[in-house]
Amino acid sequence: MPSVASIPSVPRVLQWDVHRLPNAVGKRVLVTGGNAGIGYFVAEQLAGAGATVVLGSRDTGKAEEAIASIASRVPDARVKHVPLDLADLASLKASVDALGLDRLDAVVLNAGVALDHPPRRETKDGHELMFGTNHLGHFALTHHLAPLLTTTPGSRVVTTGSFAAKSVRLDLDDLQNTHDYQPKRTYSRSKLAQMLFALELDRRLRAAGSTTESVLVHPGGALDSLTPSRPPFHVRTTGERLSRLPLGLVVQGKDAAAWPAVRAVLDPSVRGGQMVSPRAFGLRGAPRTEPLWKHLADSTTAARLWAASCDLTGCEPTFTAP
Ligand SMILES: NC(=O)c1ccc[n+]([C@@H]2O[C@H](COP(=O)([O-])OP(=O)(O)OC[C@H]3O[C@@H](n4cnc5c(N)ncnc54)[C@H](OP(=O)(O)O)[C@@H]3O)[C@@H](O)[C@H]2O)c1
């Protein structure tokens, strides 16, 4: 593990301004699920700062609409698409090869699926759909991205958790939720799995002497009805906007929900193992670092989840010192 003295000092960012981002020209960032929702706005904001952004999306048509939307707002935007289906583990190596990059400054593990109702569904690989997509898919993707991230000094893995994970605990004996299936709890547990993964990954990166850092974010509460229109894939009517106005006091649009991930990618004062979330009760507002919730520090559960994830995916994200 590097000594404190060997950790490079970073410029202190006293006040982060979401509307005045640092210049990101030359940075290359992959955003999973960058074709819609929060991921779209992460991509739009990073492209606006000058980064080259790759949208990882399973739907080419949606990705092309997102790219056109960004291009219409950001002159000279550098945005492209790679096919990415997190629910199909065998396809992920080809997605990484299709990036065609020799370096990657950050990946934002943003894509997610949330089911509200039974029946329990499974991925192509036979894993419960939310655990399989949100956690196992990103776990395996990180494994395939490790060589690219390793060759990029100071690269970052930014994992999207959720406020919903605050009130649940993992069931290590039933990670695939085959018993007593409750979709909302299963979703929350899949997000907790991602958060434990992010922190375990950072511990392993530090132990390996890697310069890659793993940062955790959660976007607060974000509603499409509070999100500015981005036609043709997201159109908010005036009626919708007015009727949901009071909700804006508690939660936010997906444009603002993108701020924690954008800060986690671009702010050098945010470090591996930290969590960035909205300032107001973790639900809305400017992005700040939030103390880790107590159960996120459970490294024993995180290590057991890591081992189970290796078994289930046949992958292990491995990073070496540069
Ligand atoms: N919205 C909230 O209040 C909230 C709160 C806490 C955490 N989060 C987290 O924030 C992230 C984004 O949420 P959101 O509200 O923006 O969701 P969203 O609007 O539903 O967008 C989800 C994105 O994930 C993609 N996706 C789903 N399954 C995929 C797969 N198998 N392979 C590749 N991409 C896939 C979707 O692609 P398609 O367009 O092809 O479906 C879409 O781009 C998620 O991780 C979510 O858990 C959201």
Detailed description of the structure:
By secondary structure, this protein is of the alpha/beta class. The protein has one domain: Rossmann fold, CATH 3.40.50. It contains nine helices and eight strands. An eight-stranded mixed sheet has the order 3-2-1-4-5-6-7-8, sandwiched between helices. α2 links the parallel β2 (52-57) and β3. α4 (129-150) packs parallel to α5. The longest helix is centred in the middle third of the chain and has 26 residues, at 183-208. The radius of gyration is 18 Å and the shape is globular. The site of NADP nicotinamide-adenine-dinucleotide phosphate (NAP) has 29 residues, from α1. It comes from Streptomyces tateyamensis. This is Short-chain dehydrogenase. Keywords: Oxidoreductase.
Question: What would a concise description of this structure say?
Answer:
It comes from Streptomyces tateyamensis. The protein has 322 residues and is α/β, with parallel strands linked by helices. It has 9 helices and 8 strands.
Q: Would you spell out the secondary-structure blueprint of this structure?
A:
Layout: E1 28-32, H1 37-48, E2 52-57, H2 60-73, E3 78-83, H3 92-98, E4 106-109, H4 129-150, E5 156-160, H5 183-208, E6 213-217, H6 238-243, H7 254-257, H8 259-266, E7 275-280, E8 284-290, H9 299-313
Parallel strand pairs: 1-2, 1-4, 2-3, 4-5, 5-6, 6-7
Antiparallel strand pairs: 7-8
